Amino acid sequence: MFTEAIEAILDDCATPEAIRAIENGGPAASIWNAVEEAGFLELLSPESAGGAGLSLSAVEPVLRAFGRYAVPVPLAQSIAARALLRDTGVATPVGMTTLAGACRRREDDSLEAPQVQFGMTCDHVLANVDGDLLLLDATLAAREPSGVRGSFCGTLVWRPDAVPATFGTNGEAVLLFSAAIHAAAIAGAMDHVFAMTLQYCNDRSQFGKSIGKFQAVQHQLSVMAQHVASAGMASGLGFGGAGAVPERLATAIAKARTSAAVPLIASTAHALHGAIGVTAEYDLQLYTRRLHEWRIADGSEAFWHRMVGIAVLAQEHGTIVDFARTAPYSAAA
Fold first, then answer.
1. Total domains, the chain
2. In a domain, 276, yes or no
3. SUPFAM superfamilies under this entry (predicted)?
4. What's the farthest any 2 CA atoms get from each other in the chain?
């Protein structure tokens, strides 16, 4: 129900034309305001506080939809930030809040948040600093863009006098939420890229028939379909726990699996589209650019594979199938 309602808003506001306008410096207020005014930023807040009281598994399809529409504002991050701030006593700030899963303190006591998603456009940053939780005013930070065309990602640096006191020790929850969000976004964007590619292959004719009827093309499409389905399953795994925050091992598996599929999905989509697929006028690049960016956000598959590998080696008995079936949500994980 919530997913369909949000998709109806995004159909109107998050069109490819709107995304291009925002990438070129236009305002993103129409998308943000439409979702905020509908109350959808409180999906994880309890009903007693005016929210929807959804579980993680129930909110996952919504987060995947944000990826499918390549939403250019931190809607998913703001939903997570409100959930993480709920029991801290810190009021939810007004405006767009994003997540920084790994910040570091410099020798001069300034604080650096490298490659923050929506770091160039956000108003606030909920940050993990060595396991501590901080809420930072992004307007007080020096912002350095990533340099990638159309990206809202940037590195933020706060002077020592602009860094507030910590108010919690659950900073890792920011990293886990952010990584799980990106796994869902990748799964959603992959689904859209595959749909575009399949439609193009059915429409494009060569030698008197659609190219989708050629066996070589069908093989590539079938491989894409397998990875898209697997990414969707991995995204669901990341949000499958019963807690208020995605489980550590489940998140690691989800982010590793979805990130690992990005190069194959993006390269195959562009190959099957041919020359038109690399043009700025064609919508495919709006999604594949984000796939590559989300792949490395919060660590690529190499980072998360190491975490999964350590957990696998630590198990005393059972097969890898037993591990995949039971470990992600076990207390030991």
1. 1
2. yes
3. Acyl-CoA dehydrogenase C-terminal domain-like, Acyl-CoA dehydrogenase NM domain-like
4. 69
Q: Residue 241 and residue 19: Cα distance in Å, rounded?
A: 33
| Model pLDDT for residues 142-182, shown as the tens digit of each residue | 999 999 989 999 999 999 999 999 998 999 999 999 999 99
56 by Cβ neighbours in 10 Å (0-12 / 13-18 / 19+) ranks as buried
Q: Is residue 228 part of a domain?
A: yes
Vertex 41 angle, CA 56 and 111, to 5°: 90
pTM over 0.90: yes
* 115 in any annotated domain: no
7 lies in some domain: no
Q: Are strands 97-105 and 124-129 parallel, antiparallel or unpaired?
A: parallel
The four Cα atoms 244, 331, 130, 300 give a dihedral, to 10 degrees, of -90
Give the DSSP per-residue string, 275-301: GGGG-TTSTHHHHHHHHHHHHHTT--H
Burial class (CB in 10 A: 0-12, 13-18, 19+), 139: exposed
Provide CB contacts within 8 A for 18, sequence distance 6+: 30, 31, 72
Look at residue 209 and tell me whether its pLDDT is greater than 90: no
Kindly state the tokens that stand for 137: 């005013």
Other beta carbons within 10 angstroms of residue 302's beta carbon come to 11
Burial environment of residue 133 by CB neighbours within 10 A (0 to 12, 13 to 18, 19 or more): buried
DSSP 46: -
Band of residue 89 on the pLDDT scale cut at 50, 70, 90: confident
- Return the CATH number at 222: 1.20.140.10
Quote the domain boundaries for residue 311.
Answer: 172-329
Could you tell me where the beta strands, DSSP code E, fall in 169-276?
Answer: 205-206, 209-210
Total residues belonging to the chain: 333
